[in-house]
Design a protein that fits this description.
CATH architecture of the largest domain in chain A: Orthogonal Bundle
Shape of chain B: globular
Strand order of the largest sheet of chain A: 1-3-2
Radius of gyration of chain B: 25 Å
Structural class of chain A: mainly alpha
Order of helices and strands of chain B: HHHHEEHHHHHHHH
CATH superfamily of the largest domain in chain A: MetI-like
Number of strands of chain B: 2
Largest sheet of chain A: 3 strands, antiparallel
CATH architecture of the largest domain in chain B: Orthogonal Bundle
Number of strands of chain A: 3
CATH class of the largest domain in chain B: Mainly Alpha
Oligomer: heterodimer
Number of domains of chain A: 2
Largest sheet of chain B: 2 strands, antiparallel
Structural class of chain B: mainly alpha
Chain lengths: 408, 324
């Protein structure tokens, strides 16, 4: 809806709606296009002008003659293709998830009230909010964790360990025991890497996985499901059989094979896992779409002359949204866990500091330096738990009847 | 369409799925650089030979100079007859290495699968029978935590606690002990426990929701009025209809845990099973072994899904095959 959306049915300005042309874009799309333009420009600039080994932002600063300004806000790094994709999904999230919540205050207030009754879910949302903000902004502020063999095995703040196990104690040294400092709030690993910094960088990886896989899975799943339902006949049969095959692929093992052949990177992980995860959603959207086209309101929309695209976009997809959201919130923790598992085995992207890698690096020192394993382990545990609680609460709030359906 | 026709169709479909997966694997392998060829070229260059010639020789040796379709047919024949070639890493045929590994994987996989399949529905039923009481909340909370706690992390912590500090169980897996000995039980108890806690959660949640539907059904009231014992009422009248929807998700869930966790749990506990073998093969760049082990996991998944569908049709006589 362009401009403002009427809150109640009798407030709707019908003249305005009937006078609108078909090419009138919604405000969300306009905002998306407006914010997408600089991103695309940056991407093209990166591809065309910036050399292979040059950092994007330092080159841009030099070209614009504003190096000092860029350095003060900390923009000196480079962007990978994955970062562009991440930024794009963030824009999608902002304009198509957050903005509509603001545009429909009545609906938002209702769901918020339903959602608020579930206390674990509120805590989960708060925790995921922290992971999101810290993962997004933390790496801009905090420098990447660095190897420093001299300060290995520093204890977390307020804790003490026997000084014999510590490289060179950074904090206070009293009676052969080393105290932790705020310099390394969660201690350091055997290579002297700061545990807290690594966890912050790991949060960014988890957020990238969450946002990018969600976008890919939702796009493929919804498109496949609705096209299959609308096409019918042998096209439908073929597409659903294809979905069956996708569903029966053992993704983790298959990823091992791909990793073995082509090498590991986070982008490869995200692509492979999301390309094999949309099967369940496509099936669900299809069955829902098949039942919705039989509903009276869809028939009346069609008689009024709505196109198939409009019917799907405005009636079928919104009616399946609750299950899509729930499905996704239960898929994401699986992806995050898979990434951590692969990183733990040393089969992930070894250039990125991640939680799984941290757990693996602390395994041998577990007896005297348990924080190296415990800190990332609990962060991983809490994140997966939070997504599960959130999925359950969203299921209750958005679609009380669907409880049994989405569970199975 | 009758039941036997449906089963026949389903088996044919399983073969088609495995064929598709094998084909994708073949295409992936054939369009990627083969480490063995690179190695031979490097070797030849180091020894002062001709790298190009060495490449050709290795290709000829491995039959890679044949046209694509010939190699494809060969590949399929080898995969389906389990003739998977020679493993350089283990210095034995791949099939032999896989069978040996399967022996160790089965030793802990069978106990945890059986325990999960028995305990999961029972805990779910118990939870549903005490719906919204503290018992229900405790069981649900346990399920959530078991589900969210990463298996490999949990395994490390338990190994530290019981293996290193309390010294109740051995830290290093010993392959010399017999299968049915106390020592073997002691070293497998932790992996089984970790996998059961992870596996129960999903099963328990589904069976809790499903059985809640039947607890107040009319046939339950009739059964109670007739004076059926509670054990029979719950186990026979509620459990049986619950198992039908449960069986549609159970195999998928168990397979996901089996594939994901066996890899991790075997590496953490040092069990020389399938998962660890796959991991070592990837690290050691042993193409035949990587291919063989991924194929084994794929076949387990395909056969598992097939069995699930067949069990489903046997369990639920209400399904009408005319619609399919």
């Amino acid at each position: 809806m362009a401009g403002k959306q009427s809150e109640r049915f009798d407030d709707v300005d019908w003249d305005e709606i009937s006078g609108r042309s078909a090419f009138n874009l919604a405000i969300n799309t306009k905002l998306l296009l407006a914010t997408l333009a600089p991103l695309v420009a940056l991407f093209v600039y990166d591809r065309v002008y910036v050399g292979e080994r040059e950092a994007l932002f330092s080159r841009l600063a030099a070209d614009l003659g504003a190096t000092s300004a860029f350095e003060t806000i900390g923009l000196t790094g480079d962007l990978q293709s994955l970062d562009f994709l991440f930024a794009f999904t963030l824009l999608l999230f902002a304009w198509y998830v957050v903005l509509p919540l603001y545009q429909n205050p009545r609906m938002t207030a209702y769901y918020w009230k339903e959602f608020k009754r579930n206390r674990p879910a509120m805590l989960s949302l708060a925790w995921l909010g922290v992971v999101f903000v810290v993962g997004l902004l933390g790496p801009l502020i905090i420098s990447p964790p660095e190897q420093n063999i001299l300060i290995s095995h520093q204890p977390p703040v307020y804790l003490t360990v026997d000084a014999a196990n510590v490289g060179r104690c950074v904090g206070q040294l009293t009676a052969s025991s080393c105290h932790g400092t705020w310099q390394h709030p969660l201690g350091t690993t055997n290579g002297g890497k700061d545990v807290f910094k690594t966890i912050v960088y790991g949060m960014q990886i988890s957020m990238k996985i969450a946002f990018i896989t969600t976008s890919i899975v939702a796009t493929i799943g919804i498109t496949f499901g609705t096209v299959s339902a609308y096409a019918g006949g042998w096209v439908d049969e073929f597409m659903m059989r294809f979905t069956d095959i996708i569903l029966s692929f053992p993704t983790l093992v298959f990823f091992l094979l791909i990793l073995y052949i082509y090498g590991a990177s986070l982008a490869m992980f995200i692509v492979v896992f999301s390309v094999f995860a949309w099967g369940g959603m496509a099936r669900y959207v299809r069955s829902k779409a098949l039942s919705i086209v039989e509903e009276e309101f869809v028939k009346s929309t069609r008689i009024s002359g709505a196109s198939t695209y409009r019917t799907v976009r405005r009636h079928v997809v919104p009616n399946t949204a609750s299950s899509i959201i729930t499905n996704i919130s239960l898929l994401i923790p699986g992806f995050i866990l898979a990434e951590a598992q692969l990183a733990f085995l040393g089969l992930g992207d070894s250039t990125l500091p991640s939680w799984g890698q941290l757990i693996a690096s602390g395994r041998s020192d577990l007896a005297f330096a348990p924080w190296i394993v415990l800190a990332p382990g609990f962060v991983l545990f809490l994140t997966i738990l939070a997504f599960n609680f959130l999925g359950d609460a969203l299921l209750d709030a958005l679609n009380p009847e669907a409880e049994a359906e989405a569970e199975s | 369409m009758g039941l036997s026709r449906y089963i026949a169709m389903r088996v044919v479909w399983a073969v088609v799925v495995s064929l598709v997966i094998a084909t994708v694997t073949f295409l992936l392998l054939s369009f990627a650089p083969n480490p063995a060829i690179q190695e031979a070229a490097t070797q030849a260059a180091l020894e002062g030979g001709d790298p190009a010639e060495a490449k050709e020789r290795v290709k000829e040796l491995r039959g890679l100079d044949e046209p694509l379709h010939v190699r494809y047919v060969d590949f399929l024949r080898n995969v389906y007859t389990f003739n998977l070639g020679w493993s350089d890493m283990r210095s034995q045929p791949v099939t032999e290495a896989l069978t040996e590994a399967l022996f160790y994987t089965a030793q802990y996989s069978i106990p945890w699968t059986v325990l999960t399949m028995i305990l999961g529905p029972l805990v779910g039923l118990y939870s549903a029978a005490n719906m919204y009481s503290w018992r229900d909340h405790a069981a649900t909370g346990f399920a959530f935590i078991g589900y969210a706690l990463p298996n490999f992390f949990f395994a490390i912590i338990l190994l530290l606690l019981f293996g290193v500090w309390l010294e109740w169980i051995p830290v290093i897996y010993n392959t010399d002990v017999g299968v049915f000995t106390w020592a073997n039980v002691k070293q497998l108890i932790l992996p089984v426990f970790v996998l059961v806690t992870g596996g129960i959660a999903g099963t328990m949640r589904v069976s809790r929701n499903e059985s809640a539907e039947y607890l107040n059904a009319d046939f339950m009231k009739t059964a109670k009025a007739k004076g059926v014992s509670p054990a029979r009422a719950y186990l026979y009248h509620v459990m049986r209809p619950t198992l039908v929807p449960l069986s549609t998700t159970l195999v998928g869930q168990l397979l996901a845990i089996f594939i994901g966790s066996s890899l991790l749990v075997e590496v953490v506990f040092g069990i020389p099973g399938l998962g660890r073998l796959t991991y070592q093969a990837v690290v050691a760049q042993d193409t035949n072994l990587v291919l063989g082990s991924t194929m084994i996991f794929t076949f387990i998944a395909v056969v598992g899904n097939l069995l699930e569908d067949l069990v489903f049709t046997v369990l639920d006589p209400r399904i009408n095959f005319d619609d399919r």
